[in-house]
Design a protein that fits this description.
single chain; about 350 residues; three-stranded antiparallel β-sheet; globular; disordered N terminus
Length: about 350
Amino acid sequence: MNILNIGGLMYINLFLFVIFFGVAPISFDDDATTKKIIYDQKVYKLYPKFYSERPKIPSPLIMDDNKELIIVITSEDKYTIIPVTVENGDTLDYSRDLWYGKGRQLDVDSADFPTLFRTGLHSESELAKTKTITGKPVDEISRIARPEMHSGEGFIGIDEDIISVLIGDNKLVKRLGMTHPQMARPLFHVFNIIIATNKDSKHGGIKGFYYNNRMINLNFHGAKGWQESIFNDEILGYWQLEIWTLLNQSEKEFLLSRYDNLSDSAMNEFINRLSFIHTGEMVPFYIQRYGFYEGHTSYRADPIAISYIFGLRRLEEIESAFEDCLYDNLNKHFLSKP
């Protein structure tokens, strides 16, 4: 298996990230040991410094040296600024008791998916011809990825296969005008919050964070063991993540006006699928490396939900991208071909 760093694509996506989040220039304080930043001529100490009021900086924030920061809120309603830079870091391997490395967050499977490596999106014609991924036959990956095989919940629906899911999600991401690395980035930010805070139990108690002027709730806890990957790679799963936000009144009214045919229960399910993600830390690695969000299981991180929750696209923009079929696109499975 030949896994490469995304190279030039990293800089393209980082450039888009800077433009997207409207970043202003800042830099680390000269004394790196103080863990401070200077923004808008004001000095802010980073985690584990806590504030009673929300710091007046954008969140996420990218600095001149490309380090990324997030404003986090604790269960005691205190605020802190946590570095969450997406990067290839120390080894992450639960099987060897290496719990707090970032792992290979920038790697893309260039050997199997050269177009993904170059552009951030799959070539669907390449996917249709794919016979193996990481040296493992796609039929075998699909078999072990289904429910009650490699895991109880599975990685794809019983009526899906790995290629149908990769193609289906690539279509969604393309319609949203995004790339897979752009989708993976906010989920890596969440994982990097966990790495930064959980290894310091004294300062735990994170209840959420701010992202694109939106409060996002976060609940996470570890499992009894770890989940092995369905691919031939080093990716393991331990954390259970719940990430959600609340629709404001105008967003609720917008959906009610567009989908007035839905029952109350169907509308509630619609809103839940749009604004709530239950997943694990394997998924951002899977998205970045393979463009894989998991199929239609309870661990799926739907690209539409990622776009909405993290404010990558406004609700009206998402709806426009799917031309009044947003409800269907959040629910339909990517069926295997007969």
